[in-house]
UniProtKB/TrEMBL annotation, chain A:
Family: Belongs to the TrpB family.
NCBIfam families, alphabetized: trpB
Domain Tryptophan synthase beta chain-like PALP, chain residue ranges per copy: 63-392
Protein's job: The beta subunit is responsible for the synthesis of L-tryptophan from indole and L-serine.
Oligomeric form and interacting partners: Tetramer of two alpha and two beta chains.
Record protein name field: Tryptophan synthase beta chain
Entry EC no(s): 4.2.1.20
MF-aspect GO terms: tryptophan synthase activity
Superkingdom of the organism of origin: Bacteria
Keywords: Amino-acid biosynthesis, Aromatic amino acid biosynthesis, Lyase, Pyridoxal phosphate, Tryptophan biosynthesis
GO cellular component, one term: cytoplasm
Native organism: Stakelama pacifica
Pfam families found in the cross-reference section: PALP
From TrEMBL, chain B:
PROSITE patterns linked: TRP_SYNTHASE_ALPHA
Pathway: Amino-acid biosynthesis; L-tryptophan biosynthesis; L-tryptophan from chorismate: step 5/5
Gene Ontology molecular-function annotations: tryptophan synthase activity
Organism: Stakelama pacifica
Lyase in keyword set: yes
Recorded catalytic activity of this chain's protein: (1S,2R)-1-C-(indol-3-yl)glycerol 3-phosphate + L-serine = D-glyceraldehyde 3-phosphate + L-tryptophan + H2O
GO cellular component assignments: cytosol
Entry EC number(s): 4.2.1.20
Protein name, UniProt field: Tryptophan synthase alpha chain
SUPFAM superfamilies to which the protein is assigned, alphabetical: Ribulose-phoshate binding barrel
PANTHER family documented for this protein: TRYPTOPHAN SYNTHASE ALPHA CHAIN, CHLOROPLASTIC, TRYPTOPHAN SYNTHASE, ALPHA CHAIN
The organism's taxonomic lineage, starting at the top: Bacteria, Pseudomonadati, Pseudomonadota, Alphaproteobacteria, Sphingomonadales
Family per similarity comment: Belongs to the TrpA family.
Protein purpose: The alpha subunit is responsible for the aldol cleavage of indoleglycerol phosphate to indole and glyceraldehyde 3-phosphate.
Length: 409, 280
């Protein structure tokens, strides 16, 4: 069943990545999950589906996204590196996608699947609003009605994205239950789905949730890694030494990592949000959590000793989630990918560093990755190549950053 | 292999089992459906409210285990979960509530109902043992379908507790045997595709569903989700072996706070009378 010596053969037919993943859903949803899996299997094997996906990615999303050598950032970081140290830093520019982040890749794939299944109504959850905007975008593009669930707290702090979603014709429902953030939005989307099983497709925004979501989101996002692998070989004649990506649920990271998993000389680093520090409020499920069951899958979760889910915290609303995609949990446990965590403060510093050295305003999510890159680059040989995923642009975050820096705008 | 009939008591647990089977048999002997009632542990004076359910005529009691993320529940039970957790309710508290209930009511079946994560946190074996020691008769776990039941179901069976499974309007005939396999105690029919406490299913759809389930299992069938009025309970009781009422009771507890037990007894008594009026 599994291909020996491959890290790319999972999940198994029951949706498991080792002990992680699975389909922990209410019985009402189970038949839907099974039919979604069937539909996805058939779509995956259908060249016409793939052709339509590729066509939309090229002409609507703007792929392939560039692979960019960040020369000034590389030089800047070499200033305090030792002799012969300071790796080359390259970025996969997924922030240049239509809607400004990697989220759209997955939304294109899922809406094509929804249409293929004959569904006529779309729902989604969103934290920062990036996935909500991407979902609203594809719904406008295909003329399907769309309801976006968003925690009431996130609605307050992400007003520009709320307005964007409304402009795109989506109905945004503020979720008042629980902690009023992303996990509660996901609960509410699941409640909607369970009550509208006949006509509704749930576009999950990250590589988590019940099987087959972690697999299909990964597959749709793997365009990032496939392109990057080809581009890097074409530009440098080799593969990168280290891949770095930020992780909330982990969809941009798994999208970058997955096509490289069997390249044994390519190291990988996933960067979680350490918030105010791992001993304070944070969102680093792998660093500070233990395995448990939430939102349809078994994975590392921030939780207390009774299994109650903790509230995550990160300056980046997109990383503010107490769980993580199950494939990352598995990759951590088997040791194929390293994971680290970066604080709000470190991410803010990296955000400003990239603005000044490269003329790129990154989102706060990849700012976490950039902070980890800066740390790593100094200790690596100057011929080494680090490839980081610049998974979103920072326009949405300028108010948050201004506030954190004490600037009134 | 798993048998679709009520399980026989295991040695050692024989003294207490099988309260569930007895409760259904007793109701059947009276020519009526069993009344199954639900409260959330730690929401209000749970001991007093549990006593109030029994005083009102409940045959079987479900004790909800609060969870931070009750995604299958509607607003009433969500709010009860959060009220309970805000008061600091722990798993130990829930088990203590169950233990107290068992001491006061040696013969009333008690089912723990909740979500996977709190049940699996210390391991399925630990939970099954703790539930048995607290005097529970069975467990309903909302988000462990048969496909993922590699740990909890076996642990409960090993311990001699019932695993009560849920069937829903979306559980088709092809899938039903899978749901029934490994289920025991009773089969809980979730009569609407949705969350707790909101919509009500049409009576004819319930009748058709119960008939379908009966053809797949000998387990008693209890019907719940959206059941509020004595008339509804009576109508469902004509075709099902049990009627489950949850959100309506939880709302009464929220509304009456310290005076809840009297109101709960009065409400449950109304349901019990309606089921008994259908006798014969």
């Amino acid at each position: 069943m599994t291909i020996p010596n491959s890290y790319r053969a999972l999940p198994d037919e029951r949706g498991h990545f080792g002990e992680f993943g699975g389909r922990y859903v209410a019985e009402t949803l189970m038949p839907l999950i099974l039919s979604l899996e069937q539909a996805y299997r058939s779509a995956k094997a259908d060249p016409a589906f793939q052709a339509q996906f590729d066509d939309l990615l090229e002409h609507y999303v703007g792929r392939p996204s560039p692979l960019y050598y960040a020369e000034r950032l590389t030089e800047e970081l070499r200033k305090d590196a030792g002799l012969g140290k300071g790796a080359q830093i390259w970025f996969k520019r997924d922030e240049l996608n239509h809607t400004g982040a990697h989220k759209i890749n997955n939304c294109i794939g899922q809406i094509l699947l929804a249409i293929r299944m004959g569904k006529t109504r779309i729902i989604a959850e969103t934290g920062a609003g990036q996935h909500g905007v991407a979902t609203a975008t594809v719904c406008a593009r295909f003329g399907l009605p769309c309801v976006i669930y968003m925690g009431a707290k996130d609605v307050e702090r992400q007003q520009p994205n709320v307005f964007r979603m409304k402009l795109l014709g989506a109905e945004v429902r503020a979720v008042e239950s629980g902690a009023r953030t992303l996990k509660d939005a996901m609960n509410e989307a699941l409640r909607d789905w369970v009550a509208n099983v006949g006509d509704t497709f749930y576009i999950i925004g990250t590589a988590a949730g019940p099987h087959p979501y972690p697999e299909l989101v990964r597959d749709f996002q793997s365009v990032i890694g496939r392109e990057a692998r080809e581009q890097m070989q074409a530009r440098t004649g080799r593969l990168p030494d280290l891949l770095v990506a930020a992780i909330g649920g982990g969809s941009n990271a798994i999208g970058l990592f997955h096509p490289f998993l069997d390249d044994k000389d390519v190291a990988m680093l996933g960067v979680e949000a350490a918030g105010e520090g791992l001993d304070a409020r944070h969102a680093a499920s792998l660093a500070g959590g233990v395995p448990g069951v939430l939102h349809g899958n078994k994975t590392y979760l921030l939780q207390d000793e009774d299994g109650q889910i903790a509230e995550a915290h990160s300056i980046s609303a997109g990383l503010d989630y107490p769980g993580i995609g199950p494939e990352h949990s598995w990759l951590k446990d088997i040791g194929r990918v390293d994971y680290t965590a970066v604080t709000d403060r470190q991410a803010l510093d990296a955000f400003q560093l990239l603005c000044r050295t490269e003329g790129i305003i990154p989102a706060l999510e990849p700012s976490h990755a950039i902070a980890a890159v800066a740390e790593k680059a100094r200790d690596m040989d100057e011929n080494a190549i680090i490839l980081a995923n610049l998974c979103g642009r920072g326009d949405k975050d300028i108010f948050t950053v201004a506030e954190a820096l004490g600037v009134k705008i | 292999m798993n048998s679709p009939v009520p399980m026989t008591p295991v040695e050692g647990a024989a003294a207490q089992l099988d309260r569930l089977a007895a409760a259904f048999a007793n109701a059947r002997a009276e020519g009526r459906a069993a009344l199954v009632t639900f409260v959330t542990a730690g929401d209000g004076d749970t001991a007093a409210n549990l006593d109030a359910l029994v005083a009102g005529g409940a045959d079987i009691v479900e004790l909800g285990m609060p969870f931070t993320d009750p995604m299958a529940d509607g607003p009433a039970i969500q709010a009860a979960n959060l009220r309970s957790l805000a008061r600091g309710t722990t798993t130990a508290d829930i088990l203590a509530i169950a233990t107290g209930f068992r001491q006061r009511h040696p013969n009333v079946p008690l089912i723990l109902m909740g979500y996977a994560n709190p049940m699996l946190r210390r391991g399925a074996e630990w939970f099954a043992g703790a539930a048995r020691d607290a005097g529970a008769d069975g467990v309903i776990c909302v988000d462990i379908p048969p496909e993922e039941d590699g740990a909890l179901g076996p642990a409960l069976r090993e311990t001699g507790l019932h695993l009560v499974r849920l069937a829903t309007p979306t559980t088709d005939t092809a899938r039903l045997p899978r749901v029934v396999d490994g289920a025991s105690g009773f089969l809980y029919y979730v009569s609407v595709a949705g969350i707790t406490g909101l919509q009500q299913a049409a009576q004819d759809s319930i009748e058709a569903a119960v008939a379908r389930l009966k053809s797949a299992t000998d387990l008693p069938i209890a019907v719940g989700f959206g059941v509020r009025t004595p008339d509804q309970a009576a109508a469902i009781g004509r075709v099902a072996d049990g009627v489950v009422v949850g959100s309506a009771i939880v709302e009464i507890i929220a509304k009456h706070s310290v005076d809840a037990p009297a109101a709960v007894t009065e409400y449950v008594a109304g349901l019990a009378r309606a089921l008994r009026a259908e006798e014969g």
